[in-house]
Design brief:
Number of strands: 27
Shape: globular
Distance between the termini: 36 Å
Bound molecules: alpha-L-arabinofuranose
Strand content: 25-35%
CATH class of the largest domain: Alpha Beta
CATH superfamily of the largest domain: Glycosidases
Helix content: 10-25%
């Protein structure tokens, strides 16, 4: 390698550093909950209106079939709705009944736009039905009441007769929907009411008490969790309300630079790439430390840690409305997604749900849509490559992570996770964050008798490679022939800046 440096051989041509590891294929115990691969659709920008929900030539609202068809390929397990911050502004009664009679709403938190409330409870349930996904409702604590939230639960889940079930039937739906995942407010430390942890814990208990009626599904009640490293928030919730909480909803965004100046989604330096990778790895520390606090109060791990909002947050796309949070999505975002998903898999004992922010046209979107044109982002392809982990059994995997150094800063280079499904198929997903140098990864396969390996890779020459309406397939997975199985060892020539998914049989 030294010779290569001396002779001026470019980094990508130098010998790939080797990393070693092992997978114990007969020692898997934990299921990777499919809800880790979940999504989030807020009334924000063009995620719902202009994304999932579009108007025809006559101005009639309809579901966007292009978006639904694209997402159907991903086996989306859930969608979280209506926010986000918007949830604590939203009054569900304004979004049911004949569409022409619904009052409009000013979305003061996102872009100050007025919407006609044509997308409400029934339309959301129609959407998750079309996506074959489970709904996650986030109720309004910040500007709502206990009665309003309890009535929403009754509207969705009571089979009648009764005032809310009768109203639902009047609005065209006889059968209850049986919605069990229920968020009690969102970011209650910030846009959801600027509360202290103590105050929210008391309020949580009050709201959660009335989300436990003797009918409908057993509720799965989700508490608004901490922002990033606010460990005291988690401790307070566990201490004061832990027995009533099924999931604590941690939010963590990967931001390069500062919140005021996050930088461009497409025009960035290697330093900004490296910072994004460091930011993505940080979710591992956050999960580890929040879980350690939860372990003190809940050693049986009954309460889940949910990562209800995650992803890259860049400066808005030039020429778009800043409050709409529209951004492009490059290979850098794909690597960030791959790191998160590997880390969630590896923490599957405590992390049992996560939601990428957000699905269409907002933040780290899966698809961008505009006026009849749809493009799948690199992040979409990562979810496609990782979807086989859903509900599979996590396999213990030790792997050296190596080092990716840039400008005196160091981060681990390689992330990976492995699972086995109920048909015995083993999936290994890997990501090499180093944009210049490949890695040779050798994995000892213990307790496993396999003979074939096949795979896909997502990579590009440029760190900023991305898809556009004009070039929608610039970045998409291709078949991968860099993996070999021999004498119980899996050897992978992992290219620079690449995500790889393998299937072993
Ligand atoms: O996803 C955008 C916003 O980020 C959400 O509305 C809020 O919960 C978070 O701060």
């Amino acid at each position: 390698m030294l010779m290569g440096l001396l002779l001026g051989v470019p980094a990508h041509a130098q010998e790939a550093p080797s990393l070693e590891g092992a997978i114990s294929a007969d020692q898997g115990e934990t299921t990777i909950n499919r809800h880790i691969y979940g999504h989030f659709a807020e009334h924000l920008g063009e995620d719902i209106y202009g994304g999932f929900w579009i108007q025809d030539d006559r101005g009639n609202w309809q579901y966007n079939q292009q978006v639904i068809e694209a997402l159907n390929q991903l086996n989306i397990p859930n969608v979280r709705w209506p926010g986000g911050c918007f949830a604590d502004y939203y009054h569900w009664r304004d979004g049911v009944g004949p569409q022409e009679e619904r009052p409009s709403i000013v979305n003061a938190i996102w872009g100050n736009v007025t919407r006609d409330n044509s997308f409400g409870t029934h339309e959301f349930m129609g959407l998750v039905d079309r996506l074959d996904a489970e709904p996650i409702i986030v109720g309004n604590v910040g500007s709502g009441t206990v009665e309003e939230m309890a009535n929403w639960w009754e509207y969705m889940n009571h089979d009648g007769p009764g005032p809310m079930a009768d109203l639902r039937a009047e609005h065209g739906r006889e059968e209850p929907w049986n919605v069990r995942y229920w968020g009690v407010g969102n970011e209650s430390w910030g846009c959801g009411g600027n509360m202290s942890a103590d105050y929210y814990a008391d309020l949580y208990k009050r709201y959660a008490t009335y989300l436990w009626p003797p009918y409908g599904p057993e509720p799965y009640r989700i508490a608004a969790g901490p922002s990033g490293s606010d460990y005291e928030w988690t401790r307070t919730l566990m201490e004061e309300a832990g027995g009533m909480i099924d999931g604590i909803d941690l939010h963590h965004y990967t931001v390069v630079g500062t919140w005021e100046n996050k930088g461009s989604a497409t025009d960035f330096t290697e330093g900004e790439w490296h910072e994004a990778m460091q930011g993505a790895w940080y979710i591992d520390e956050l999960i580890t430390r929040h879980s350690a606090i939860m372990d003190q109060y809940d050693p049986e791990q009954e309460t889940a840690l949910i990562v209800g909002e995650w992803g890259m947050w860049h400066d808005p796309m030039p020429g778009t409305k800043p409050g709409f949070l529209k951004q492009q999505n490059t290979l850098r975002d794909a690597l960030v997604a791959a790191l998160h998903l590997n880390i969630f898999n590896r923490h599957a004992d405590r992390v049992r749900m996560a939601n990428l922010a957000q699905t269409v046209n907002v933040l780290q979107a899966l698809v961008l849509y505009d006026d009849g044109q749809l493009v799948k982002t690199p992040t979409y392809h990562v979810f496609d490559m990782y979807k086989a982990h859903q509900d599979a059994t996590l396999l213990p995997m030790d792997l050296e992570r190596g080092t990716y150094a840039h400008d005196g800063e160091e981060a681990p280079a390689v992330s990976a996770s492995a699972s086995v499904d109920d048909q015995g198929r083993i999936r290994v997903t890997m990501a090499n964050t180093d944009p210049s140098r490949a890695r040779t990864v050798s994995v000892d396969l213990r307790g496993l008798d396999t003979s074939t390996v096949s795979g896909r890779v997502l990579t590009a020459d440029q760190m900023s490679a991305h898809n556009t309406f004009e070039a929608p397939t610039r970045l998409q997975p291709s078949s991968f022939d860099g993996a070999q199985l021999e004498n119980g060892t899996l050897t992978v020539e992992l290219p620079a800046k690449a995500v790889v998914s393998l299937e072993l049989q």
